[in-house]
UniProtKB/TrEMBL annotation:
InterPro entries: LarA-like, LarA-like_C, LarA-like_N, LarA_C, Ni_dep_LarA. Pfam families: Lar_N, LarA_C. It comes from Rhodococcoides kyotonense. PANTHER family: LAR_N DOMAIN-CONTAINING PROTEIN, LARA-LIKE N-TERMINAL DOMAIN-CONTAINING PROTEIN. This is Nickel-dependent lactate racemase. Gene3D superfamilies: 3.40.50.11440, 3.90.226.30. One of its GO terms (molecular function) is lactate racemase activity. Residues 279-419 form the Lactate racemase C-terminal domain. Residues 12-213 form the LarA-like N-terminal domain. Signal peptide: none annotated.
Length: 431
């Protein structure tokens, strides 16, 4: 009798991807479903008027003050236009568009094109507001702020530092080495200079056991990110929580650290899911577009899978990778610089100075040291992936079936259809 199969919809690019897997051997782990807010603009405005901590936004800003807004680049599904419009509406009568500078917190990513900015913010805001892509490598655009945290030299975007009012905007989700996204990350690494980012992401910090999903206190990366943001000053912070359709579920505003702590506890309840065992095969994604545009970004989905894969098991990551590895930056070069993942880790640990994109390579090398990683992708060949210690999976269902047959009748598969939007962990019973 043929094994019964179930269809599983994977977040992949803009269209999604359906795979059929054996029903009695497959565990699907997805975020707790939360319906989108019925009136998103009202929810956003309420977060600004009734903050978690600190005064309402209208009491923070005075007429004529210059306001800088930090927001995520295109690799994040932040509802930027809605959030910026909420800020403009809440400050009506106090500030005008001319008072604002929107800073795209690229970190070390490339700047967004005009077309991408229009996708992110809409034509009207792009045509009527001052928008600047942060450039971590442009020394003239940076300002020295001093040393913060555990010896981190801090340069920040000059437009941000020189503004009268600094407002971070973002969304909060578990992060594979910083604990959670959003909040203080919109200052550093988002608006930081290259040397600052490389220090925050050096081998010692990334290599810490506490530099992982959903850990903030005692996480050397997040501890220093938090120290920089609070030490250099943020006047108001504004974050949202998204559901698996990337729609706004809730919004929070106010004093940076208290707001972020409140928001991440909500996210923890929605996205952290216990599982009873480790799995022979874990199928994951990177949450579809815009998060699965490159292998660099897809490392997050692989890392989520690594939390519940058996040592020596198989991870299959479905990520469209329309931006390649990407072609810019040094990620591919560093990843291909050593013949094995183990030698990569050794080489990275031996370096006195971090190089760009090393941290993502270090995290991926740790995953590769635990499991084999194949990718289902539209834009990269097997030969290209092999240079990065990965391999192409053309048919996910067939690859899963082959691995289950190889391991035996007790083999099991886990699926993370939303990738890093859901972080599985071993339950107490399993431990």
């Amino acid at each position: 009798m043929a094994e019964s199969r179930i269809p599983v919809e994977l977040a992949y690019g803009r269209t999604g991807l359906t795979v059929e897997l054996p029903e009695d051997r497959t565990t699907v782990v997805a975020p707790t479903y939360q319906a989108a807010a019925e009136d998103v603009p009202a929810v956003l405005r309420e977060a600004l008027a009734k903050p978690v901590a600190g005064p309402p936004l209208r009491e923070v800003v005075k007429p004529g003050q210059k306001i800088a807004i930090s927001l995520c680049d295109l690799t994040r599904p932040q509802p930027r236009e809605l959030m910026v419009r909420a800020l403009l509406a809440e400050l009506e009568g106090i500030s005008t568009k001319d008072d604002f500078t929107i800073l795209v917190a690229t970190g070390t990513h490339r700047g967004n094109t005009d077309e991408e900015l229009r996708i992110m913010l809409g034509d009207e805001l792009v045509d009527t507001m001052r928008i600047i892509n942060h450039d971590a490598r442009d020394d003239d655009s940076l300002k020295w702020m001093g040393t913060y945290g555990d010896g981190v030299p801090v340069w920040l975007n000059r437009h941000w530092v020189d503004s009268d009012i600094k407002i971070t905007t973002g969304f909060v989700e578990p992060h594979f080495f910083a604990g959670f996204s959003g909040g203080p990350k919109l200052v550093a690494p988002g608006l930081a200079g290259l040397d600052t980012v490389l220090t925050l992401h050096n081998a010692a910090r990334i290599g810490s056991e506490n530099a992982t999903w959903a850990v903030c206190e005692g996480n050397p990366v997040h501890d220093d990110v938090r120290a920089i943001a609070s030490g250099t000053g943020v006047d108001f912070a504004f974050d949202v929580v998204l559901n698996r359709e990337q729609k706004v579920v809730a919004a929070f505003g106010g004093e940076l650290l208290t707001m972020h702590e409140t928001t991440r506890e909500v996210v923890r309840e929605l996205s952290m899911v216990p599982v009873p065992q480790l799995y022979d095969v874990v199928v994951t994604t990177n949450s579809g577009f815009p998060l699965d545009q490159s292998v660099y970004q897809a490392v997050k989905g692989m890392t989520a899978a690594a939390t519940v894969v058996k040592p020596g098991g198989l991870i299959i990551c479905a990520a469209e990778c329309s931006d390649g590895f990407p072609d810019h930056g040094s990620f591919r070069e560093v990843l291909a610089s050593e013949p094995t993942p183990a030698e990569l880790l050794t080489a990275i640990s031996a370096r006195e100075k971090t190089v760009p994109d090393q941290w993502q390579v270090q995290v991926l090398a740790r995953v590769l040291a635990k499991a084999r990683v194949g990718m289902h992708t539209t834009y990269l060949s097997d030969a290209e992936l092999q240079t990065a210690h990965l391999f192409l999976v053309e048919d996910i269902a067939a690859a899963v079936e082959e691995e289950l047959l190889r391991v035996g009748p007790d083999a099991r598969v886990c699926v993370l259809p939303e990738g890093p939007q859901t972080i599985p962990y071993l339950s107490d019973v399993a431990e």
